[in-house]
Amino acid sequence: MTFTWGVATSAYQIEGAAAEDGRTPSIWDTFAHDVVGEHGDVACDHYHRMPDDVRLIKSLGVDAYRFSVSWPRVQPGGRGPANAAGLDFYDRLVDELLGNGIEPWLTLYHWDLPQELEDAGGWPHRDTAYRFADFSKLVFDRLQDRVRNWQTLNEPWCAAYLGYQHGVHAPGRRDFGAALAATHHLLLAHGLAASIVKRPDNSVGLALNIGTATPHTDDPLDLAAARRADGNVTRIFLDPVVHGRYPADVLEDLAAQGHSLPIRDGDLALIAKRPDVLGVNFYFGQDFAGRDEQGNTHDALGRPVVREIQPDAPKTAMGWPVTPDRFTTLLLRLHHDYGVPLAVTENGAVYDDSPDENGYVADEERTAYLRAHIEATLAARAQGADVRGYFAWSLMDNFEWAEGYRSRFGLVAVDYETQRRTPKQSALWFQDRIRSGL
């Protein structure tokens, strides 16, 4: 079985050129300017430096590059015909990748909803799923002859819940009902787009952020909290896509709280587009408890407590625990419960990088993180999980969403003032690891 090594990015985080060649604002342009205080107007200036960046990718020795397409660059406003200049950029990118022996892995949606569609209701509005299908067809019609690996959505949980319930990501809304509607309509968008782009000779899937929902103890309350966490983050997305149904316990929990998903007849048949490869974005595992820190079992609204507890483990600079052993467990669980081929489409860490006078970063902690998680990936593969690739997040330092520019995930350091790229120790280690094979 072939194993693919790659690196990954997303459009808004690296491209810049936010108002060039017909591109219009996305919800992240608005949120970044209004809330974050830093933005992707220039970012890594990849839009103008793309050929050099592709040569940088090639120098790492990877097989593939995972990138996303900017919806408002290709279809300004989220409606109507394609913007030729926007599509031309991705046409050149794909040709540049293939010319350098790098396989394109294309993600259609990595959170940059056109602002006009948010103004019309956003993901809680059913019509947005159909607008996404139209956009997907524009991209597919141009690139289908050269792109074989397609992912419809990246981390729809983040788009739905961080964006519409918690308000910490674009568009910054705080409405649980809106987040539930967004969940269903994102899944509908996946199904509609997958129907458009699927061909016998290509691979279509989606990428989900998945952790491990482990009970903190064997207390029945902790077991129930872990079940709820797993249902609300993992199974609510995977069960309809793979099995054609929402988890019964999740629907029952929602009904007990007076909530439901806006499911219409025929929706689940549209959503159930089993991934050829499921993208797994993993950063850390979590424990869950059914009591809050004061011992209460229900919150102020009468809902059962689901309290996240971080495992006792070393932490990254973002405070995330380093849990590679749980990664192996997760991959095996996904293999056994869903039976779909897997690829690690994001995995990486933020540490406080300190470049020397030449811009070089001796990032030993990130190197150790990558080593441990690649070993965990291969351990799951050795135990029978059908894991077909590993993509490091991220190719280079970039605009890290609500964190702005202070959080650096990159294998390659970026000096944002000069746009100079300098491979870090982790990049050189990754290059050597790929050369060593499996």
UniProtKB/TrEMBL annotation:
SUPFAM superfamilies hit by this protein: (Trans)glycosidases
A UniProt-annotated Pfam family: Glyco_hydro_1
Tagged with keyword Cell division: no
Alphabetized UniProt keyword annotations: Carbohydrate metabolism, Cellulose degradation, Glycosidase, Hydrolase, Polysaccharide degradation
Record: residues binding substrate: 13, 110, 154, 283, 393, 400-401
Gene Ontology BP term (one): cellulose catabolic process
Reactions this protein catalyses: Hydrolysis of terminal, non-reducing beta-D-glucosyl residues with release of beta-D-glucose
InterPro entries, per the entry: GH (IPR017853), GH_1_N_CS (IPR033132), Glyco_hydro_1 (IPR001360), Glyco_hydro_1_beta-glucosidase (IPR017736)
Residues making up the signal peptide according to the UniProt record: none
EC number per UniProt: 3.2.1.21
Cellular component GO terms held in the UniProt record: cytosol
Catalytic-site annotation from UniProt: 155 (proton donor), 346 (nucleophile)
The keyword Hydrolase is assigned to this record: yes
An example molecular function term from Gene Ontology annotations: beta-glucosidase activity
Stated family: Belongs to the glycosyl hydrolase 1 family.
Protein name: Beta-glucosidase
